[in-house]
Inverse folding.
């Protein structure tokens, strides 16, 4: 069957998120990952190969054939080597890694249940890219390209939401926060991010939720995926790590939160409050300090630097204190090394990271999975980007849910931290579309 490589730019797409939602919702291109960054959306679909890594087994597939084997060592190195064995021919890879991926580097393997999925990457046959110059299609047959163009050009109405109830808390979140504050004040660690899960009582139309949520959020990155039995859509507030073709490694820690979108005067007042709150400043400063140390451990000496320190960035229903940390990757380090060192994000785990992650596993109770993990893209040139998975909706055959957390330090108050989770859940909960 012949394929087309349609690289001629066409008319501008006025609503890329809606076009991407239609491509996903059409359900004719197999599994997919949609990823938005810096004004470009990509729809990567119909895997020709992939890599699945769980606690016990590595499975590598290519054009219908799958091999399975036990693995040992560190998950990042295992994925790097597995990708290197595939005949990619310059193709890109897309996928996700779960929070539990960090356990091997942080001595927390005993916390991870058997058969937990750690990572799932795929190499697409079809890629559709949309940016401010138009769109491009590669890898599709002529009939598929025609269908793609029709879906991109379609003019349909935005979906209607079934807002989710977020204030119920069967997880005992306030009590868990109080327990963490006690451990912090006893000197066990400085900070931990504890989260709570909100189950949804209906099946979710995830592509439609992505479309409606993206229209009402201001993410650093956004994503929509269906891969390995998991559907998810989210509006990521920050990068975990990016390594570009010039080997510049970047992370963007966000810590310190107030509500946003409640009117200009209220937003200005809460911004001033955020910038003056000692608890929020301490939380942010220790996060940046940790991120800088991690970048410095990866980078050529003297290249690690902090920029935009403690800027305020608006992310949907909340505003955060934010900084950027960069360095030039040392010659003996790879992009996957950078991912391993910087994952999980310090703003989604804790400080020190080892003790923080241990506390997460003990006090968050159920596995996080994709929540506070990352959606990952790997270019044909080896550049890598991993965006933090927060402000998202998740769905499997067992149900659908939301999840949000807050950074707990010694000055934390359980009621305020619970309220912060509500503020973050409000980035997604009002836009959930019932399936």
């Amino acid at each position: 069957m012949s394929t087309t490589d349609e690289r001629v730019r066409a008319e501008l797409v006025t609503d890329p998120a809606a076009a991407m939602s239609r491509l996903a919702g059409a359900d004719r291109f197999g599994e997919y990952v949609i990823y938005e960054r810096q004004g470009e959306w990509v729809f990567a679909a119909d895997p020709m190969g992939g890599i699945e890594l769980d606690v016990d087994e590595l499975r590598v597939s290519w054009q219908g054939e799958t091999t399975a084997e036990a693995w040992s060592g560190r998950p990042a190195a295992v994925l790097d080597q597995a990708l290197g064995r595939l005949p990619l021919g310059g193709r890109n890879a897309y996928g996700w890694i779960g929070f539990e991926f960090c356990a091997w580097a942080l001595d927390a393997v005993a916390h991870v249940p058997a058969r937990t999925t750690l990572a799932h990457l795929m190499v697409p046959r079809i890629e559709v890219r949309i940016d401010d110059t138009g769109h491009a299609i590669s890898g599709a047959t002529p009939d598929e390209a025609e269908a793609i163009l029709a879906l991109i050009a379609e003019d349909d109405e935005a979906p209607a939401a079934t807002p989710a109830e977020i204030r119920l808390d069967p997880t005992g979140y306030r009590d868990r926060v109080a327990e963490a504050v006690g451990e912090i004040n006893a000197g066990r660690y400085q900070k931990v991010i504890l989260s709570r899960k909100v189950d949804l009582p209906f099946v979710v139309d995830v592509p439609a939720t992505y479309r409606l949520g993206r229209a009402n959020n201001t993410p650093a990155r956004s994503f929509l995926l269906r891969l390995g039995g998991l559907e998810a859509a989210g509006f990521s507030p920050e990068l975990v790590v990016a390594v570009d073709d010039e080997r510049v490694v970047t992370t963007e820690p966000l810590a310190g939160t107030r509500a946003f979108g409640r009117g200009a005067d209220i937003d200005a007042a809460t911004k001033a409050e955020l910038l003056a709150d000692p608890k929020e400043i301490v939380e942010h400063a220790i996060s940046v300090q940790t991120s800088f140390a991690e970048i410095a451990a990866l980078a050529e000496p003297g290249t690690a630097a902090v920029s935009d320190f403690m800027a305020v960035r608006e992310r949907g229903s909340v505003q955060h204190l934010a900084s950027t940390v960069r360095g030039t990757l040392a010659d003996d380090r790879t992009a996957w090394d950078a991912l391993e060192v910087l994952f999980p994000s310090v703003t989604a785990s804790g400080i020190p990271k080892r003790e923080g992650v241990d506390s997460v596993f003990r006090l968050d109770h159920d596995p996080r999975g994709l929540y506070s993990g990352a959606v990952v893209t790997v270019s044909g040139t080896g550049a890598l980007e991993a965006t933090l998975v927060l402000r998202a909706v998740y769905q499997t055959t067992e149900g659908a849910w939301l999840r949000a957390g807050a950074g707990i330090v010694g000055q934390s108050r359980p009621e305020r931290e619970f309220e912060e989770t509500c503020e973050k859940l409000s980035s997604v909960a009002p836009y959930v579309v019932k399936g």
In short: The first strand starts at residue 4 and ends at 6. The longest helix spans residues 278-298. The chain has ten helices and 21 strands.
